Amino acid sequence: MSGFKDKVVLVTGGSRGIGRACAVAFAKAGASTVVISYAGNEAAANETVGMLQAAGAKAEAVKFDVADTAAGASAIDTVVKTHGRLDVLVNNAGVAVDGLVMRMKDEDWDKQLDTNLKGAFALIRAASRPMMKQRGGAIINITSVVGEMGNGGQAAYSASKAGLIGLTKSVARELASRNIRVNAVSPGFIGTDMTSYLSDELRQKMVDGIPLGRLGNAEEVAGAVLFLAGDAASYITGEVLKVNGGMYM
Ligand code: NAP
Questions:
Q1: Is 197 known to be catalytic?
Q2: What is the pLDDT of residues 145-168, one digit of tens each?
Q3: Rounded distance between C-alpha atoms, residue 66 and residue 93, angstroms
């Protein structure tokens, strides 16, 4: 498949989980260059780079905290200078710090909002300039079912992910005239490190509320991301595509 031939793709949080699956899917779909970012897990990032190279892509891993807006802008700048363009940005990096609002510390609130929402904003701001010059691009933000339906114990996470939906729709309107499409993918419960802490009991309770009767896997989310990034979605912008096994319709 060569749908992404000559395309340069940046996936944040590509060292593990959903981000890794997205990066590998782009490489397998023929993207010439796939850059992943990570926060600190260098071994996992290097492993992803190996997988991308094995799939035939030029690959590189860059370390920066997406909550650091200057670092994000500089990373986008370097990608464009090094690889000549940026066609697809996937804002996937995210964190969840669970806890009830009445006990939540300011720093836990800030960490989730800064990483999940402000980070995406800063990278979109930085990517929009080169994409406008190219008169084309695709941005996909990874939100969450929790941003759509709320979840006790995840108020900050939910607020950050709901914010991403508003950001997606607003930027989609701002950039549409330049042929830049901005969409979101909203996963349900996906089997990654982020959900590995769940007890068997809690996991079963979750599964009981999912019509398809199981957790999703990262590759199933990557499929939706690839669809929205590619030509098959050329008339889709401002959309939130649910990948949740039917748990929220
Ligand atoms: P994960 O396995 O925990 O991986 C998180 C990724 O984000 C890692 O690559 C991590 O880098 C990176 N990261 C975390 N904080 C960062 C920061 N401050 N700066 C830069 N990179 C950072 O998570 P996942 O389950 O794949 O989730 C990926 C995205 O999907 C997140 O936005 C998450 O909210 C969303 N999502 C997940 C689920 C689910 O059920 N798993 C459901 C809905 C939405 P390191 O490897 O260096 O730590």
A1: no
A2: 999 999 999 999 999 999 999 999
A3: 7
